[in-house]
Design goal:
Elements: E1 2-5, H1 11-21, E2 27-28, E3 34-35, E4 50-54, H2 61-71, E5 87-91, E6 98-103, H3 110-115, H4 118-122, E7 127-131, E8 145-151, E9 161-165
Parallel strand pairs: 4-7, 4-8, 6-7
Antiparallel strand pairs: 1-9, 2-3, 5-6, 8-9
Helix pairs in contact: 1-2
Length: 169
């Protein structure tokens, strides 16, 4: 599945569309009335609990995750890049559910992730959003949803991004 983001102004709409299509939130109609997600849009195991974002430097991983957290109910002033902290914890309003935002760029190896208790977060049942997942791939759940973000400029949209994903089998 694919979503295109032509410019930064469309990031929240793209994040909402992504969240609805992968089952992180119910789809809504134009009046905001909740609808049940289409069964072919959600993976066989239901909504993903771990979403790993793969992209190059500057492709928009943190920007997209910030928008995704906003549409999932996290207060926007709480959202920041966990580059140095490695993991940020956000709270969804009003549910109080936690979202874990990982930035694994500075991790040297899997041992560092294990030492900080990454498995506890990944298998907690809470939503985990991961940037630079390669270093911890060995401990990611089998049903991790991988999202690839690529720069895909076209005439009139030089900053265009493409988000692509397939549900785990």
């Amino acid at each position: 599945m694919t979503i295109y983001i032509d410019n930064i102004e469309g990031i929240d709409d793209a994040a909402r569309s992504f969240a609805e299509r992968v089952g992180l939130m119910p789809a809504t109609d134009r009046e905001g009335v909740g609808l049940v997600p289409a069964t072919d849009m959600v993976g066989a195991g239901g909504s993903p609990r771990v979403v790993a974002f793969r992209a190059g430097m500057g492709a928009g991983k943190t920007t997209f995750i910030s928008a995704l957290c906003r549409v999932l109910g996290v207060e926007s002033d709480e959202i920041s890049s966990p580059t140095f902290a490695i993991i940020n914890v956000y709270e969804r309003v009003p549910s109080g559910e936690e979202i874990y935002h990982f930035d694994c760029y500075r991790l040297e190896d899997l041992g560092e992730a294990l030492d900080m208790g990454a498995e506890d977060y990944l298998y907690s049942g809470s939503l985990c959003l991961i940037e630079w997942p390669d270093v911890i791939e060995g401990i990611l759940p089998d049903d991790t949803l991988y999202v690839d973000i690529t720069q895909s400029p076209i005439a009139g949209a030089p900053e265009r991004r493409q988000l692509s994903w397939n549900f785990p089998a």
